[in-house]
Amino acid sequence: MERTHTWWKLIASLLILVASLWSQNLQNIGAGKDGPQQAKVSTDTSKSSSVLDKAPVADSNFVIGNEDVLAISVWKEPEISRVIPVRSDGKISLPLIGELQATGKTPKQLQAEITGELQSYISEPEVTVIVQEIKSQRFNILGHVERPGSYLLTPPMTVVDAIAGAGGPREFAKLKSVYILRRQSDGKSARISFNYKEALQGKRPEQNITLQARDIVVIP
């Protein structure tokens, strides 16, 4: 009996040891899975934050137009700093300064003008002007397309891109007779022919021109 009792005690001890080792192994596996995943999430979140923190930057040669939204920042002057749209008359209004012409100027030119105007009120003003939203760059598409109207121009946009963005041509549209009306510097409009069928076939790719602001695409 004593020998049998000793064997049972030995078996029980071995079972307890195996169970303990198995439990420890499972914990290590779980920790190994959680660790790398947590580190990865932390890294991705850091990258996302750095992207979100970036402020929009306008091209230094960009010319401000009506309806563009400007972010005007004056260092240590929160009462003057603001996000403001350019009115239909091309002007903006700022405290201390009043009305300023914004349309037709680059952000850098407007920044210099605001700085000069504020020097009568603030010692060494530091001004930053950024185009936060570009709404002035638009074109029109008319005629036999699914959704004719005025659209925001997002360069580089070709004639084919414009027609596709308007839902494509309707049935019975004269696809060989599409044309673009473009305003010249003298105020007159130039007519540029465009064969939509040829463009889709890859013929004469040079006719699929890049659109400019205020272009009018006509699909007869």
Report on the architecture of this protein.
With 220 residues, the chain is an alpha+beta fold. Helix content is 34%, strand content 23%. The protein has a five-stranded mixed β-sheet, with helices on one face. Strands 2-1-5 form a three-stranded antiparallel β-sheet, with helices on one face. A two-stranded antiparallel ribbon has the order 3-4. Residues 29-55 have low confidence and may be disordered. The termini are far apart.
Write a short abstract of this structure.
The chain has four helices and ten strands. It is of the alpha+beta class and 220 residues long.
Which class of secondary structure composition applies to the elements? alpha+beta
Calculate Rg over CA atoms.
33 Å
Strand content: 15-25%
The percent range for helix content is 25-40%
Low-confidence residue ranges:
29-55
Looking at the chains present, what oligomeric state does this protein adopt? single chain
Compressed to H and E, one letter per element, the order equals HEEEEHEEEHEEHE
Chain-averaged pLDDT? 81
